[in-house]
Prior knowledge:
The protein is globular, with a radius of gyration of 12 Å. Strands 1, 2, 3, 4, 5, 6 and 7 form a 7-stranded mixed sheet that branches. The termini are far apart. The chain contains 2 helices and 7 strands. By secondary structure, it is α/β, with parallel strands linked by helices. A hairpin with a 5-residue loop joins strand 1 (12-14) and strand 2. The chain has helices at residues 72-76, 91-105; strands spanning 12-14, 20-29, 40-45, 50-55, 60-62, 65-67, 87-88. It has a single domain (6-105), classed as Photosynthetic Reaction Center, Chain H, domain 2, CATH 3.90.50.10.
Amino acid sequence: MSTYSGDLVGRALHARDNRPAGRITAVYHYPVVMCAPAGAVAVSSGLLRRSRLVDLQDADVVDGVLTVPHDRDTIRRAPHAGLGGGGTLSEPDAAKVREHYRSAAQPV
């Protein structure tokens, strides 16, 4: 899917099984050198409202809900989102996010 914008902040994010995985708190873009136009979002969930970064490659918005092709466990183990409110991720942070979701998608 194409680049996302800040209009996603506050919306629900669902995992691939359509179960809620949290609320979107920020939208991030990957550095241009990564050639990854979809970007990532920070999602808060749980009692402690921990914020994780979720890759948006192959995500889809239907009826205001963003659904990603990841399971909830993969999202819960994702790299932490910093205190920033969006913008462009650093190259090291972006690489961690992309690697996390790529490795989770690999067959065991």
